[in-house]
Structures
1.
Amino acid sequence: MFYSGRMQRRFDFGGADITRWRSRLKSVLDGVEMPPPRPPTGQLIKSIISARTRDEVSGAAYERLRAAYRNAALLADASPVDVEQIIEDVTFAGTKAAQLIEALLLIRERRGDLSLSFLGGIPVDAALLWLETLPGVGRRVAASVLNASTLDRPVFIVDSHVMRVLGRLGFADPAGEPRAASEAVTATMPGWSARHFLQFHVELKRLGQLYCHPTEPECRLCPLAGECLELRRLNRPTRAPGRRRRPDASSRQMPMLL
């Protein structure tokens, strides 16, 4: 069950709903391969630079950072100006470059090195809170470091696409915080492994990218249209039935961890 922080209890969903949604979302992963998980520090770097940026752009920027600095220690000692030039095509490149270096320096100051492996041995809630004290790290980034890396922790990642879909389904308050949606899904599925949470994240994200757009959603093509409370509430006009749109090659091949 999900409770809005600003309202009385408004939503009543459970594991059966999420299980049913997953069974209907299998098609959105057709042709998509999940890449191997990154080390947690690498996932932190990738997640910080990926906010409000297309996967293919942030993925390429991350690979350029790896080629230029080879390891996190060299990146931590880099100039923010140099890092900004390398990741210049991501959104807010200058801010992200500064936050990235500040976060790495703070990790080294606290821990003596840049390894985040210790986060695998403390409770998930404590690990999330520790990460969220770093510059540029909110719940989306913190959850991705724990779940999508080799740490393999059971916590749900909520980005803007996922939040939009959950809001339209009625599981989350559309005006609420992604943190609350992440905690609600994580608490609703206590028996799920980290992989289950990651796959559900990717499925909802793909749904948001392919059909559940911020404006002009393609509801007639959406596999969850029959579950959408917003569609029923607004009686939103939908496009005429037609052939299912095939994702282009870049969409099929994009990095899927965030």
Note: Residues 28 and 206 are 6 Å apart (CA to CA).
2.
Amino acid sequence: MIRAATPEAIADAARSLRRGELVAFPTETVYGLAAIATDAAAVAAIFAAKQRPAFDPLIVHVDSLARARQVVRHLDGAALRLAERYWPGPLTLVLPKTDGIADLVTAGLPTVGVRLPAHPVARALIAAADAPLAAPSANPFGYVSPTTAAHVAAQLGATVPLILDGGACAVGLESTIVSFAGDRPTLLRSGAITLEALEALLGPLRLATDAPLPNAPGQLPRHYAPRTPLALIDAVSDVTAGARGSAALLACGPVEDAEGFAHVERLSDDGDLLIAATRLFAALRTLDAGGFSRVYAVRVPERGIGRAIMDRLRRASA
């Protein structure tokens, strides 16, 4: 059931969480599917609802630095500098976890990803539940992430008793993830907090490579993927006229020579990558429902938030 995120609905959602039920809620990145992070049975229900493999860890959401320190063993040094600069916001920090967090949240790892979201509904829900919330994106595992309450209802409505509607997500891409588990900060996932911004504050970061088993969400080779096959191209001219008739084109900004495609979806009118990021997942869902034989996505420059857009498109096309 979708409910506008009024104070009364948030209070009801908090009571549902304390009863061990799942609640979908908005953040500035994507909609999350929440359970109290110390409730192992409720966390298991997240994995069941999403059909998510148990080896893929979850992010824990908090509403304050004080609550973050209940989740991780220490938050200091470079990690604290990032938190003070970018929290509340679309940044997840991976740090050694405390004992209270359910092992299923972290896939048995000694570390946990923690984030303080900027969306006021998210923070109000955490405060009302008076507990950290484990919350991956509120969609079937591996599929395109939801950026509206309607996206959640369309795919998980039967398994989620309550969906808080806080409007469309302002960022539209999952959080940047930085790990402090090793001897040097490592960028595990690109997002709206860009590599350039992080390195301006911390110096050079190590860049993670995909591993057989992830140590943070969003690291599997195929993820964020529509059912319709998606192919990356450098230019529209890469697609022959014969391949266009039943296919859709996804581009950021104006394109030339787009004749012959069944549909052209532009993520922004002028190539603005920030706007493109906010529209990416909604566009992929629209195209997936269009009955096209294939989606051809034009690559964007891998700088700033373009790195995050290309990360999502690359995994969607794997």
Note: The longest strand covers residues 91-96.
